[in-house]
Amino acid sequence: MDGKTTIKYLQNFIRQKDYHPELLKDYFLKLTEEVGELSRAMRKGLKAPNPQEIKGTVDEELWDVIYYAIAIANLYDIDLEQVIKVKSRMNESRYPSPVVFEENR
Fold first, then answer.
1. pTM
2. Which of 15, 32, 64, 71 is found 20 to 30 A from 6 (Cα to Cα)?
3. Which domain holds residue 42?
4. How far apart are CA 47 and CA 54, in angstroms?
């Protein structure tokens, strides 16, 4: 990867690879399973020793959580890039901060 992977790219990648609307409940169950695995890895402080050895680490489990969250968004036809923009504006009004979300970055 070139460090410029977008949410839109990830959504398209996952949609092409893994899109099964009939398995919505299974995607959600898998998401909750991965959250549990992330919790275990965090509790044990399992960080990858290098970028190639991520099995069972926070690194791997965090990606798994993101993967299934995006897969669920795809099943609901949610444009996550748009949601991020809207939700960021909502949060800025509720939780003012000098750090402002910059669109198209």
1. 0.90
2. 32
3. 7-94
4. 8
CB 71 within 8 A of CB 27: yes
| Average pLDDT of the residues in 15-21 | 98
* H/E segment holding residue 40: helix 24-43
Q: Is residue 69 part of a domain?
A: yes
**Cβ atoms 66, 50 nearer than 8 A:** no
CB atoms within 10 A of CB 57: 19
Question: What is the DSSP-derived secondary structure letter of residue 95?
Answer: S
> What is the DSSP-derived secondary structure letter of residue 22?
G
Query: Per the structure block, which two tokens stand in for 92?
Result: 């800025």
Task: Provide the pLDDT for residue 16.
Answer: 98
Q: At 82, which CATH number? A: 1.10.287.1080
